[in-house]
Amino acid sequence: MTLIKYNPSLPSTENKSFSSLLDRFFNESFNGIGKEMQHFAPQVDIAESKKAFEISVAAPGMKKSDFNIDMSDGAITISGERKFEEKKDEKNYHSVETQYGSFSRTFHLPDNIKEDKIEASYQDGILNIVIPKDEQKELKRTIQIK
């Protein structure tokens, strides 16, 4: 008897051979993007210096036209999509570990920024966003105890 790991997304294993289960797994997972591969969450680094906040989004394989950056209500939203391009004549994939799909990340910003001076660049698979601080607006203050 062969043990098969329980997977609730697969139909009942009754009257199914192990070979047919493997075929279904490989056909759904690698011959096109399955449901598990439709969400992409790029890694983000956030740094702060005296003059600015910096957001770096790791998204190799994308073009700068694949990104959207929006500011609204004190938050910056970075969204985009990395599409899987399968050329059926050239390759048969046996494993796809790269994430594909659409993503959206929102970060709430402090009040001491210059929204009109935000800059973004994309180079070597990294989207860099520089959010300058407004030195006129000081967020830190000391509260006197009464």
Automatic annotation (TrEMBL):
Record's keyword annotation contains Ligase: no
Secreted recorded as keyword: no
Alphabetical keyword list: Stress response
Pfam family, one: HSP20
Domain SHSP: 35-146
InterPro entries: A-crystallin/Hsp20_dom, HSP20-like_chaperone, Small_HSP
Domain of life from the UniProt record: Bacteria
Similarity section: Belongs to the small heat shock protein (HSP20) family.
PANTHER family on file: HEAT-SHOCK PROTEIN 20 FAMILY MEMBER
Protein name listed in UniProt: Heat shock protein Hsp20
Organism, scientific name: Marivirga tractuosa (strain ATCC 23168 / DSM 4126 / NBRC 15989 / NCIMB 1408 / VKM B-1430 / H-43)
